[in-house]
Amino acid sequence: MLATGKGLKALEDMISRSADPLLRRRNKRRLIIDVDSTEDPVHGNQEGAAFNGYFEQVCYHPLFCLTNKGDLLGARLRPGNAHSADGVIDLISPLV
Rounded CA gap, 8 and 48, in Å? Predict the structure, then answer.
């Protein structure tokens, strides 16, 4: 159920909502948002995995959005051949 489109959207919404109290508690007028990608190596034939020339391996290439304090604001699992910037706007738009 969680791996369906509706389930993934619900999980993204939950992560975003869980950050709200943290951000309000800090009561800052300015927030630094850090968006980074990383490789997540896979073994075998995993759906969505692809060879990434930069990391020189078959992997997923997830995207993470965090505050400068390390609080997770959002995450997106992407295929291994996704460009580092693919999906950044879609990930941070609901947050700002």
Answer: 15
